[in-house]
Amino acid sequence: MSFSNPKYYSNTATLYSAALDEGDYHDWKDSIITGLMGFITPFPEKMRINRAFVRQMYEGYQQEGFNNILDIGAGPIPRGHEWATEANIMYVDHNPDIVEHARRKLPAGASARYETSSVGALPGLLEKGLVDGFFDDSRKVAFGSNAVLMFVDDAEIKSTFQYLYEWCAPGSVLKISTTGITGSESDLRAKFIRTFFKKVNAPMHVRNVDKFCELFAPWKVTRRPMPLWEWVNWPPSKMTAGIGFDIYGIELRKE
Length: 255
Fold this sequence. Notes:
By secondary structure, this protein is an alpha/beta fold.
């Protein structure tokens, strides 16, 4: 299996895997790159913090009694079915190599499925019955999309999440983690960050987090962008490039 198909920018997944103790979707080159990144950026630590956020998200959804969870861009190491054991979980990812890898690890008897879908393709797949007969009929859904949307264009985010708002029932919730900044998107330091991640084959948007929230209208923001270290009570990092560069959590709901 190739982990470096530029069509899917799968280096984003392999570097994530290399940053985690449980990672199994990378090779020695990814481990070296991730190790080097750790000397000049907080990337490895941020990925571990993101993992803690994902676990907290799933456990919170189970405590709230959600029966249906849709994880958008779930990546190669899904464990939501271990953290929300009473829910029906649909994982999706745009990279078929990741889907194939992750499917092999889903335990028999788990109420979890993994399908191939990009963010932009998701509305069409739901129209074709992606979750029919798997989710219950209420359409009250807990959505998650973690460390994914910084790789997705604005128009695709707007279109998909407006559709999801209209498709799901009141009481549905959406939790997101994404890299972002509190400063100006045109700042030279933001441009440097974009260039750096493009060099390691993980090109991404570097957005102001407050502007990012505007892409999700008409969802109601119920927890504004907060650094994940603060969300999960992890010691803070001071490596923010002076423009608030960090990975942020956001919660939105349909009332």
